Amino acid sequence: MQNPAQSPQNTTSGNRARQFIRAACWAALLTVLVSVCILVIRVRGGMTSVDADTLAAAEKKWQLAQLLNYDLEVHISERHKRRLRIQVRDSQITALWRNDLPIQGNRGYQAWTVEGMFQTIRTDVNQQLQLATPTPDTRLNNLTVRASFNPTHGFPERYIRIEHRQQGNNPEISWKVISFIPHKS
Q1: Strand 70-77's sheet: what is its strand order?
Q2: Is the backbone of residue 108 left (phi > 0), alpha (psi -120 to 50) or beta?
Q3: How far, in Å, CA of 113 to CA of 23, rounded?
Q4: Fewer CB within 10 Å: C terminus or N terminus of the chain?
């Protein structure tokens, strides 16, 4: 006589239950892993919203560092991605490469010195402040401005600026300092 607990129907039900439990465990594990990955991606780089106080503190740290001579490599993402290598001496660009090609004349590239980067961020922060108290003739875009600043020297290491428009696309501009090498005066 066959034991009813071991009938083919009960064995099949038991296998299905074990398969379901195994699949549920794998799904839970996968969910946890994906959640951790998303959290790491969001937190990575420590970028925070930039306001006037945050910017002023970073600029003060930069001024106290008194670095007038440095080499800088920056990756820029906007409509076109590009990489700039900049040699700065006495706060002025002395050599410049765009995507490893030397550029003669640095007109228009002063914005990529540390001082120029601070000026760009300051302009965007001021625009945010103007939007907080708009006047009837205000024609500014709402912005999201986020950055991380070097903990030692204060220069902007990463920056992202997103325009929020009612119509059209939302242009995003970002940069990341890949290399910063200070030189003694």
Answers
A1: 48-49, 142-149, 156-164, 172-182, 70-77, 81-89, 92-98, 101-102
A2: left
A3: 54
A4: N
Question: In angstroms, how far is CA 86 from the centroid of its own chain?
Answer: 21
As a whole number of Å, the end-to-end CA separation of the chain is 97
The string of DSSP codes covering 124-171 is HHHHHHHHHS--TT----EEEEEEEE-TTT--EEEEEEEEE-SSS---
- For 2-32, letters b (16+ CB in 10 Å) and e give eeeeeeeeeeeeeeeeeeeeeeeeeeeeeee
Sign of torsion over alpha carbons 168, 130, 133, 60: positive
Q: Is 74 helix (H, G, I), strand (E, B) or coil?
A: strand
Confidence of residue 141 (pLDDT cuts 50, 70, 90): low
Contact predicate 50/147, CB 8 Å? yes
| Dihedral Cα 166, 171, 177, 183, nearest 10 deg | -90
Q: pLDDT digit string (tens) for 28-84?
A: 777 766 555 444 444 445 788 999 999 999 999 999 999 999 999 999 998 889 999
**Within its chain, how far is the Cα of 43 from the centroid?**
10
